[in-house]
Design brief:
Elements (H helix, E strand, L loop, with lengths): L1 E6 L3 H12 L3 E7 L7 E2 L2 E5 L13 E4 L4 H14 L6 E2 L4 E2 L4 E2 L4 E2 L4 E2 L4 E2 L4 E2 L4 E2 L4 E2 L4 E2 L4 E2 L4 E2 L4 E2 L4 E2 L4 E2 L4 E2 L4 E2 L7 E4 L4 E5 L1
Parallel strand pairs: 1-2, 1-5, 2-4, 6-9, 7-10, 8-11, 9-12, 10-13, 11-14, 12-15, 13-16, 14-17, 15-18, 16-19, 17-20, 18-21, 19-22, 21-23
Antiparallel strand pairs: 3-4, 23-24
Pfam families: Hexapep, PglD_N
Protein name: PglD N-terminal domain-containing protein
Length: 208
Amino acid sequence: MANLLILGAGGHGKVVAEVAQSMNKWKDIAFLDDDKDLKHVLGYKVIGEINQYDKYYKHYSHAFVAIGNNKLRLELINELIKKGYTVPTLIHSFTSISATSQIGLGTIVMPGAVINADVKIGNGCIINTSSSVDHDCIIEDGVHISPGVHLGGSVYIGNGSWVCIGANVANNIEIGENVKVAAGAVVINNFKDNVLIGGVPAKIIKTL
């Protein structure tokens, strides 16, 4: 069994640790976080600051980035790989994932999520609690699919986009890079890069 280092000990980090724990494959789990007052989270030690990851490679062969910011998460994943860490994919034991799906490194799949046939999910994504990704969807790197989001079949989500809690995206929709889909939105049209969209049906609110 390998040892796992988690970068980020906030709320998201707590859930990451519990997902990792559910997999029953880690001998030791520890955190790095920039809050110097944190010593333990969920019973696991906080052993240093996030930028000190290069000190712990010999003991923790695997490392996972538990940071909500999509851009920063991807940057840190790339740095960990350069350092020689193995960046795992974390999948909670209580999920439904098609054997034909592909899920990238540094991606986490939370409890209750459903990922159906021939879905492709990139690196550093968050597939959050009780979300669903239907057949033939493509989710690029660094995307956050929030709790309760539902994607119809053959949806495309570009790099770094964030689909907020409870949003729904209809079949065959394309959403570009760095798009934020507001909570509760219903997306029935395609949208290009760098916009905030929201409403029922979703419309452009502003350029990002």
